[in-house]
Amino acid sequence: MKVLVIIPCYNESQNICQVVENLRAACPQVDYLVVNDCSTDNSVEILRAQGYNYLDLPVNLGIGGGVQCGYRYAREHGYDVTVQMDGDGQHDPAYLEAVIAPVAEGRFDMCIGSRFITKEGFQTSFLRRVGIRFLSGMIWLLTGRHVRDVTSGYRACGKALTNLFADQYAQDYPEPEAILRSVVAGYRVGEVPVVMAERQGGVSSIRAFKSIYYMIKVSLSLVIYRLSFTKKRR
């Protein structure tokens, strides 16, 4: 079974070597692709110097566009399972096999690594947990499916969803919308427990003001997508 790990990278010069080396040490059997989203620091120079497998995007596409490039790469190269893993060091590759297993075994089409099942490790800030619970509740109201860690970027997808996301993927903060899109289209989405760490260096792209913007934008996107999907099905 061919597995590709997509690692989005935007100004992750402090973290990217550790992320790739930890992945290679823990799971040497999987392939990986770092997607450098037109970083303004020296990330691409590091990737080049280390000989890592990477795409260097000529313009900044944002997290959604960068990950979508990874899904397109996975489709073109015939991967069976595609995994997203953040480039900031929060996702432990020791849990990679646990995240992949339900997809590889055919139990899920998407498996999300959730920090909120066993509630071990870094649980993010209080305000972000409130926002995550709110979005989780919205997805439950819109689909009837309960997903705890809806913003987790640690997730594995099978071929069907890899093909879907290669063509259609939300551009800004896409994780909750990808879950909604998958569930309403009839794909099986589940979670497994993982332990996450705090960001190892650099600065998160979601700060106080952006967190408010994020909540409003994602909430509206979820409702609009669900309504438009229902309309198309009639």
Describe this structure in words.
- This protein has 234 residues and is of the alpha/beta class.
- The chain has 8 helices and 7 strands.
- Strands 3-2-1-4-6-5-7 form a 7-stranded mixed sheet, with helices on both faces.
- Helix 2 (43-50) links the parallel strand 2 (31-36) and strand 3.
- The N and C termini lie far apart (38 Å).
- 44% of the residues are buried.
Keywords:
14% strand; globular; alpha/beta; 234 residues; 7 strands
What is the mean pLDDT? Answer: 90
Tally of DSSP β-strands? 7
Which bin fits the share of residues in helices? 40-55%
Structural class: alpha/beta
Gyration radius (Cα, Å) is 17 Å
The largest β sheet comes out as: 7 strands, mixed
Q: SSE order, as H and E?
A: EHEHEHEHEHEHHEH
Show unreliable segments: none
Q: What percent of residues are in strands?
A: 5-15%
Broad shape: globular
In terms of topology, how is this protein built?
Elements: E1 3-9, H1 16-26, E2 31-36, H2 43-50, E3 54-56, H3 62-76, E4 81-84, H4 96-104, E5 110-114, H5 126-143, E6 155-157, H6 159-167, H7 175-184, E7 189-193, H8 208-233
Parallel strand pairs: 1-2, 1-4, 2-3, 5-7
Antiparallel strand pairs: 4-6, 5-6
